[in-house]
Specification:
Blueprint lengths: L2 H23 L16 H32 L3 E9 L8 E8 L5 E13 L15 E3 L4 E7 L2 H14 L1 E12 L5 E12 L5 E5 L5 E2 L1
Antiparallel strand pairs: 1-2, 2-5, 3-4, 3-6, 6-7, 7-8, 7-9
Amino acid sequence: MSDDRVALIALLALAGWLLIGLPMIYLPEHSEFFKEPLGIKPGEWLLSFATLGLWYATWRLVKGADQNAEKQLRAYVHVCDAQILHENDEWSPNIRVTIKNFGQTPARLVKHGIGHNITFVGPGDFTLKEDQFVSDLGPGQHTTKTMIVAREMWHKLFKPMMKAGTGYIFGEITYRDALSDKVRKTVYRFEIKFDDAGQAGIFFSSEGNYSD
């Protein structure tokens, strides 16, 4: 039952007590309408139910307010940038993924694992090794993971394979929320695509993205 419905029922019960129960308390004892089950007058029964309903509705509203406050203030760690650098110069290509805490409170014990995969047929293997590096991210802070690929390997092996199949960059971010100490998780997946000039770009995949 929703909080609004519980509150409405409680208010109706309170209105019933004011309009019906309260006058019944002051009815003369010889009135045929006056009965006292368990020694409690009907108006007092109605007042008890109304009070209990209002207490429950208030408790639910306070609990809901706490949950809303947590949602507004908790840490949210997500990818804020992903790019491929030095693809067409003398340096080795760099695949960089930057994550950021978009929330209002620190994210503690942040782990960010990253991997790559080239798939030709089927769903592909997106298994990650557990990341051993742990750090904290304050509100607005960011950190970057970089994968460096040998220049010759990128152009002679990886690039032709990715054009024939689908190249992926994927990762998982885990962290603890400072407000509730819950372990939060963000999972992401990018596809590497090439334009008409052969320049590589990183784009969000339609699958493999999740956060809580």
